[in-house]
Design a protein that fits this description.
The protein is of the alpha/beta class and 290 residues long. It contains ten helices and ten strands. Strand 4, helix 7 and strand 5 form a beta-alpha-beta unit. The protein starts with 14 loop residues before the first helix and ends with a helix.
């Protein structure tokens, strides 16, 4: 991948800068943890198959571990692996006290049930926030381990001192990874939240009302300028790989003149997601050692 250009427009959210700040905090915390306990926090990742974007994301997560001083293990399976083999590995990792966080890279092949896999990860090691116990806690406002991408969005809002309370939020996409948890986390912060998806009629009529618009569909260039309110804050979480380049769900150049803030793809929400994962791994290690 080519290096990303410097962010000079104040309307463009520099996810790399926010991620660097989070990682600096985590690195300091890891150093303190090692001094106190004599071991490093440790993350185990599980990758199934040869999906190029997934392989890249896992690699980026291991690079982040190195930067902040977290130990990491990389477990790989072929795409045809039986579900039981993944479950056996998760059970083993759950029992290993020196492994503090477990991450299964999504998506998984169709013959593997993602919900079964996520339920198998011990809630205290669920650094991706997908175990039903952690999801349930989030639903009742007791946020612990949260899905990392929506938490990155919340962190960016905090960075720009934007309080979601009372604001109109529209989330486009209702996945368990981004859409649903983003909606719940913003409801927890007293925003008025509307969730749109593939069955929504007249998407534009909804998105044009949004003070904060979060788009996570994987449809390249879905959101155009005429679908965005003047002065809106837009988070583009969608990723489409085409000709070895990555594109977002928002037609960036078209929408930029209308917005107060916008996250680019790449270099926006992605780096923050990985930094939050590092934060969660340290958090998991501290909880397990207390």
């Amino acid at each position: 991948m080519e290096p990303l250009p410097e962010v000079t427009d104040p309307r463009v959210i520099d996810g790399r800068k926010i991620a660097q700040d989070i990682e600096a905090e985590v690195k300091k915390g890891v150093e303190g943890f090692v001094k106190e306990h004599g071991i490093k926090p440790a993350l185990a990742t599980i990758l199934v198959g040869e999906h190029p974007p997934s392989k890249l994301y896992v690699k980026l997560k291991h690079w982040a571990c190195k930067r902040v001083g977290i130990a990491s293990e990389d477990h790989k399976f072929p795409a045809q692996v039986r579900q039981e083999e993944i479950i056996d590995l998760i059970d083993t990792l759950n029992k290993r006290p020196e492994i503090h966080g477990i991450l299964v890279q999504l998506p998984l092949p169709k013959h593997i049930d993602e919900r079964t896999i996520m339920m198998r990860i011990a809630p205290e090691k669920d650094v991706d926030g997908f175990n039903p116990l952690n999801m349930g806690k989030m639903l009742i406002g007791r946020e612990g381990f949260l899905p990392c991408t929506p938490k990155g969005i919340i962190r960016a809002l905090e960075e720009f001192k934007i309080d979601p309370q009372g604001k109109e939020v529209v989330v486009v996409g209702h996945s368990n990874v981004v859409g649903k948890p983003a909606a719940i986390m913003l409801l927890n912060r007293n925003a008025t939240v509307k969730v749109c998806h593939v069955y929504t009629k007249d998407l534009k009529s909804h998105t044009r009302e949004a003070d904060i618009l979060i788009v996570a569909t994987g449809v390249r260039g879905l959101i155009k300028a005429d679908m965005v309110k003047e002065g809106a804050i837009v988070f583009d979480v969608g990723i489409t790989w085409q000709d070895e380049r990555v594109y977002g769900d928002v037609d960036f150049d078209d929408v930029l003149p209308k917005v107060k803030l916008i996250s680019p793809v790449p270099g926006g929400v992605g780096p923050m997601t990985i930094a939050i994962l590092m934060e969660h791994t340290l958090m998991a290690a501290k909880m397990q050692m207390s």
